[in-house]
Amino acid sequence: MSISDTKDEAGATPPKPAYPEHLARESPYPPGVRRVPVDRYFRPEYHELEVERIWKRCWQWVCRAEEIPEVGDHMLYEVADLSFIVVRTAPDEIKAYPNACLHRGRRLCDHPGKRAEEFRCMFHGWAWNIDGTMKDMACGWDFPGTRDEVSRLPECKVGVWSGFVFINPDPDAEPLSDFLGELPDHFEGAGHDLGQRWKQVHVCAELPVNWKVVQEAFLEAWHTNITHPQMVRSPEHAYATGTRWDAFGNWMRLASALPTDKHRSAGPGWGVIAESEQQALNYYYDWHDQEAAAIRLQPGQKTGEITSKAQRAAVGQALGQGADAYHDAHMHSGEMLMLFPNFHPWGGFSRIVYRFRPRGNDPERSLMDILLMAPWPNDRPRPPPAPVHYLTVDQPITDAVELGYLARVFGQDLGNVRAVQDGLKMLRRGYVICSSENEAPVRMFHDLYDKWMGFEDGDHLSRASPANGAAGR
Amino acid sequence: MTGRNPPPLRSYRHGAFKTTYAQQPDGTVLVTHDDGREGRFHVDGRHIEGDLTQANRHMLYFAGGPALPDACRYRWGEVPVDLDRPSGWPEEQERALPHQLG
Ligand code: FES
Ligand SMILES: [Fe+2]
User: Fold this and answer.
1) Which of A290, A383, A406 is nearest residue B11 as measured by Cβ atoms?
2) Torsion over CA of A304, A305, A306 and A308, rounded to 10 degrees?
3) What is the nearest CA distance from A390 to chain B, expressed in angstroms?
4) Ligand 2 centre and the CA of A228: distance in Å?
5) B76 and B93, same structural domain?
6) A366 near A341, Cβ under 8 Å?
7) Within 10 A of A321 (CB to CB), how many other CB atoms are there?
8) pLDDT (tens digit per residue) in B40-51
9) What residue owns the CA closest to ligand 1's atom 4?
10) Which domains does chain A have, with CATH numbers?
11) Residues of chain A with C-beta less than 8 angstroms from the C-beta of B5
12) How confident is the model at residue A421 (pLDDT cuts 50, 70, 90)?
């Protein structure tokens, strides 16, 4: 059922939902190419500085609030060689602490868990209440004059946005809401409260590459042309194959393939155009040429009509008639967002959320989290959030079959990232080039990266010669 | 939306390069150009034989690489849910995903 043939009880046609205002907002990133020194993708000095200046200072998404629903429920957040305990201390309060005993530094908590009443160190038995206050200083008489130093676990800042729990290890950090800026206007403000979604899928893959290398493979859409050539465009959408990014402070958004004149590329489109509408539909669903298409298009029928309806039906499975309140633009899955440094909550009903982070202290190891956040009705209890499905570095991403078609798409992306990690070291001139429009988000990421790393006046760690333009911008 | 039972071998067109990528029973991929040239390739891009010696390795992977169970051939925006089942997944997917459901 499409909106236009929906009648209310009086027989009047309800007004068609308007084109969403948040999608119409434009804020183009300043144009220009950018040269990025390659050292930052593999040299340990960068990793060490990232730990100090990004991972100890930036807001980071750590878990979903519904993963620690009861007081005492806790999980561990790990990034590089840092570990934090994230615990629910009251029905409406979550706290986070560096995971270290204040006696001689043993990791205080070894595993995530349920309904903890204390965190007791498994070395000599000192214990803190879950609110961080000292509970038991075993043999305290033997530590004269130190009680004040150990009476409270140091705290990280904690913020929650739409069910996503964030921490910032820096006690002087700005509030999360300031860091997010107008991001919420593009979600709950636009009828997409991710706090109501159900975490249906969560895969975490370990990869043998720098976290920025893999993140940047998901930070532009232009590579689709060569890396995902099966993702052909319907001939009627040929105009929309450029990608226009908009920047809003610490985050950026790609709004492509939306039924609007906005966000059009300045240049000619680059997408692979399907040879027929039927081919566009088949490949949209990964129906290959040797199987019968589940839907045969009628003469004159367009792919977009079918896919919009199917997406609407999928949303309707959860929201019922609630889906009718959304314009077709919400149904397209082309709204990519990225919040610095590593969090990608896609907009509309795309469902996708990514996170990228270094794994341990090896600058060539990372973790990629992939979530699918299903719409779910407010008046029904949500199923339990999906447990994390970990993939080792040797497992193919297609082992995570719950990702569906995306698993095969990721197989293509991840087929590139190892090759990128290797090739970067062979670049004699010492830098890569990012384009003005299609790669604006990669440029923006590195501009923000430079700011946080203290490289505003040039990347002083880089061995690339300033003369070739790599050290500056 | 999920597809029907696929036959064992897949093929796809690469319209921009006027080529067809067809999975072969031995796991290789036969690439045929509209001009008649052919080449056989490993899924990772290595050429085996034929006068067509170069191909898009991502298309090779897509035609010849891992397949998904039928129950999981959904698009990310259309992952099915079932409001009445405790797992939230329809029965068909629940059966295909025993390890992922915790
Ligand atoms: S190191 Fe924790 S009690 Fe000694
Ligand atoms: Fe990709």
Assistant:
1) A290
2) 70
3) 10
4) 7
5) yes
6) no
7) 9
8) 999 999 999 999
9) A124
10) 3-8+17-39+191-453 (3.90.380), 60-172 (2.102.10.10)
11) 291
12) very high
Q: Is any Cβ of chain B less than 8 angstroms from the Cβ of A183?
A: no
CA distance A113 to A92: 18
Residues B13 and B62 in one domain: yes
What's the confidence (pLDDT) of residue A93? 98
Say whether both B39 and B79 belong to one domain.
no
For residue A130, with 0-12 CB atoms within 10 Å meaning exposed, 13-18 middle and 19 or more buried, which class applies? buried
Dig out the tokens for A432 from the structure. Answer: 């890569």
Question: Of A285, A350, A408, which has the smallest distance from its Cβ to B1's Cβ?
Answer: A285
Q: Among A148, A176, A137, which Cα is nearest to A160's?
A: A176
Q: Which residue among A288, A317, A350 places its CB closest to the CB of B81? A: A317
Which phi and psi (to 5°) does residue A253 adopt? -140, 140
Beta strand residue intervals within A231-325, DSSP E = 245-248, 251-255
Chain B residues with CB-CB distance to A201 below 8 A: 79, 100
Q: In chain A, pLDDT over 90 holds for what percent of residues?
A: 73
| Partner residues linked to A83 by β-bridges | A78
CA distance A260 to A9: 32
Helices and strands in chain A: count of H runs, count of E runs: 11, 19
> What confidence tens digit (pLDDT) does each residue in A54-93 have?
999 999 999 999 999 999 999 999 999 999 999 999 999 9
Other beta carbons within 10 angstroms of residue A237's beta carbon come to: 21
Q: How far apart are CA A376 and CA A199, in angstroms?
A: 10
Chain A residue numbers touching B72 (CB-CB < 8 A): 401-404, 407
A402 in contact with B, Cβ within 8 Å: yes
